[in-house]
Structure prediction request, 126 residues.
Amino acid sequence: MGKEPVIRHEMDTELVRETCGGSRRIITAQDGSKSSMHIVSIADSKMHYHNEIEEIYYILAGWGYMNINGKDYEVYPGTAIYIPAGAVHGGRGGFVTMVVCTPAFDPDDQFVVAESSVGYEHVDRG
Prediction:
């Protein structure tokens, strides 16, 4: 027989303060998963990148901007974002997002960069 499924409610997890904001790490590598899934509240996250992890964000509530490699993208409920490994990114505004990481999130693969090292360009949706 294979692995057992993991069923967990976000309120059964601890709120962790991290680079992006407040995070509830619902499914993690400790569950035996190759991917992880977090619910993250973002107001003004630090610009950072991952060498190995790629992420998919799905905006659940609120509004704001994701800056990816120096370009701002407006985000609001229903917006999905794929962030490849190595892309410098961070969010601002006030939104809640589901984040799926592959491979599973590893805090040792998160590197904060100085905002002055990232240029900003606004990209209109359209």
